[in-house]
Amino acid sequence: MLTSLLAQFLDPSRGPEQSGEFRVSPTFFLALVVFGFLVGTFGHIIKSKTVIIAGVVMIFSGTVLLPLGLAITN
Questions:
Q1: Which among 53, 12, 54, 50 has a CA at the least distance from the CA of 30?
Q2: d(CA 9, CA 13)
Q3: Tell me: the pLDDT tens digits for 20-66?
Q4: Do residues 33 and 58 touch, judged by C-beta distance below 8 A?
Q5: How far apart are CA 56 and CA 51, in angstroms?
Q6: pTM
């Protein structure tokens, strides 16, 4: 059930039509955010502030910095 919901979410044909020059698949951003959560969780498990910060930076860059940078350059 979870995989079918995830597949529906990741299917680009089910989303809104893209307009303008910003034609980038969100899969990379979603993967970066998920990997950031995994890194942050691992950092909490091993109690390493550096690894936690790395996870937070990955999440922030996948949700804000990279999409904003792409939107500005286009």
A1: 12
A2: 10
A3: 665 677 788 888 899 999 999 999 999 999 999 999 999 999 888 88
A4: yes
A5: 9
A6: 0.65
